[in-house]
Amino acid sequence: MILLVVVAALFAGYGTAYLASDDVRYLTRAGIEETHILQARRPIAALVADGGTDPALKGSLQLVLDSRDYAARLGLLAKETYTTYAEVGRDTLLLVLQASPKDCLCAHTWKYPIVGRIPYKGFFDSRAAQREADRFAARGYDIYLRPSGAFSTLGWFNDPLLSTAVTGDSVELAATVFHEIAHNTLYVKSATPFNESFAQFVGYRSAESFFSSRGDSAKAKQAADRWRDEIVLGDFYSALASRLQALYDQHPDSAALEAGRSEAGAWARAELEGPVAERLRTLRIGRLPERPVNNARITAGRIYRTRLELFEQWYHAHGGDIRGSVASLDTLMQGAVGDSAYARLERAVGDSTKQ
Length: 355
What we know:
mainly alpha; three-stranded mixed sheet; three-stranded antiparallel sheet; 14 helices; about 55% helix; about 10% strand; globular
């Protein structure tokens, strides 16, 4: 999920700095929006007990409470995450910007207090988001501006369940709860792909365990199949990235660069509509429109699907026990920063296969 950094001092003593600085205006808007969300919170337990709550919403909220309880049984640090609910009054909570040079699969990063460098920036103000995207596009970057229905403050605030994150798919809702709580449990500074891929793993494997404990084998299988689909997509993105990296390593001129990107795009479409689609169990690709390669889109897709097979191998090395897998990984990652997280995990998985 998207991380939102909110600085408590936003509301004091800005004066001319507010007028002069985009960063100050950005942080101020984020602080105001976070304040509105926190003020709109209502206890989920009270909404479930309220006879006036819409039955469909009540069912979803009860599932959230049950998922939180199960997360605690798994040893995850639920803290106060998703004990409250907030109606935000719109379909799109915020827009997320990602940017990457056209000749490099390297995401532009923004530096924030506490969490380090993050390869995206969230905007509550759509006009500010578009202005920032236009600035990067003018510099020749690939850009990707997408909506997001949720974010996490890593437990710094009592993150409510937002109305934009509630869907009719109970497996996805439960997985979202476990995903967000996973961020409270383990977070490696300046390692966004590791953190998000870890949370994907925890989200779906925990959802599988949760529904299995309730005797709902169909939904348990759906969660397991959804996780398997994430691994399939991760393999696809890795193969596409390898093709593009081979192109970029040649430092081609502009004509050769565009020709090579076009060729890679054609390969990607053929893979997604053919072999990848055939392997997917819960997702449907369909016919894809003609769309050029966009490094920002590719890096965005990989953030949540980076080396997922390592997490799966770690899971099986711990007997298919999600609780034991997470506890051991938390211990392994003590003191890790940035790329060292994956290096540690890869070594540990390699060591486990030799035993």
